[in-house]
Amino acid sequence: MTSTFGTIFKVSTFGESHCKGVGAVVDGCLPGMTLSEADIQPQLDRRRPGQSAVATQRSESDRVEIQSGVENGKTLGTPISMFVPNRDQIPGDYSDMADIPRPSHADFTYQKKYGIRASSGGGRSSARETIGRVCGGAIAETLLRKVHGIDIVAWVSQVADIKASLPDIEKLSRADVDATAIRCPDQSAAKKMEAGIEAAKDAKDSLGGIITCVCRHVPAGLGEPVFDKLEAMLARAMLSIPATKGFEIGSGFSGVRMKGSVHNDPFVLKGRKLGTATNFSGGIQGGISNGEPVVFRVAFKPPATIGLPQQTSDFKGNPVVLEAKGRHDPCVVARAVPIVESMAALVLADCVMIQRSKLM
């Protein structure tokens, strides 16, 4: 199914950006877990629009309601349905664009694929769809903490050509990340990033960026050989997020500039467990987690919908000048941080459940 992710721990998302609401159904969750809206809402609050000057000013509280699968604060092992209403949609902002496919947006491809598309807000291609992912990811994180004590932290490591210094990934917390509006723990770089985004916003333009993510306390043995390697599943998950254009793990593309004698991760004894002295592998070897932190990066393009006049064509091929209206993120990375964390949690939760099924 095109809107379902996962093999055993599954999440199916539903809804368009300007319909009555969006949400998700999670299937395959362990029974007896403590769960309420309060476990899901914090990540939704970090994802919601209107929270800072570097994000869209659409005003949505994004309050989640659990509709099934939980009773008296405990999961039943049955599908968990969650719903978040849309309240601040303004379809009229899109009336002038009904016959014009926005450059680098999904208007053209959705129309070609289905012969119809949502008339406003981007429909399923909108970042509003990611609410369901965050809902499912919050439940996945609850499972990961319960089973293995796994925790996941992502942060903005680059906006345009402004790069942040690498934090201590063993100690970095979400509170450290959220100390700045752009969700970059490097305070100096964060100020430059925010200034750059506001300048782009004033110019009716947009900027791209990179999010780095670390998954800590991941046990060795997660991931499958050959086609379902852990890094392959993470790449699939991350590149399914709207506006993503690149994924790299461990040394990533920089590894091509290193020799094998430098890039190899020698094994050493860490306490009572075997680990590696370095982590250029990003916590994964042969497609299977090795017990080291899983570290990866995701590249996000500049948002496609901008207010700057653009010379383009309508669906009939007639030349037009498009000046998009509506409320859009001048840079998506600040709000994408919890989305990256959520998709990582969904991958790891599914891998944990698959591994449990092998050992039963």
Characterise the protein shown here.
- With 360 residues, this protein is an alpha+beta fold.
- The chain has a single domain (4-359), classed as Chorismate synthase AroC (Chorismate synthase, AroC fold), CATH 3.60.150.10.
- It has eight helices and 18 strands.
- The chain has helices spanning 37-47, 107-114, 130-148, 174-177, 187-202, 230-239, 260-263, 333-359, and strands at 4-5, 10-14, 21-27, 65-66, 70-71, 74-75, 80-85, 151-159, 162-163, 209-216, 244-249, 267-270, 273-276, 284-285, 288-289, 294-300, 310-313, 319-322.
- The strands form six sheets. A five-stranded antiparallel beta sheet has the order 1-2-3-7-4, covered by helices on one side. It has a five-stranded antiparallel beta sheet with strand order 9-8-10-16-11. Strands 5-6 form a two-stranded antiparallel sheet.
- It is globular.
Explain the layout of strands and helices:
Blueprint: E1 4-5, E2 10-14, E3 21-27, H1 37-47, E4 65-66, E5 70-71, E6 74-75, E7 80-85, H2 107-114, H3 130-148, E8 151-159, E9 162-163, H4 174-177, H5 187-202, E10 209-216, H6 230-239, E11 244-249, H7 260-263, E12 267-270, E13 273-276, E14 284-285, E15 288-289, E16 294-300, E17 310-313, E18 319-322, H8 333-359
Antiparallel strand pairs: 1-2, 2-3, 3-7, 4-7, 5-6, 8-9, 8-10, 10-16, 11-16, 12-13, 14-15, 17-18
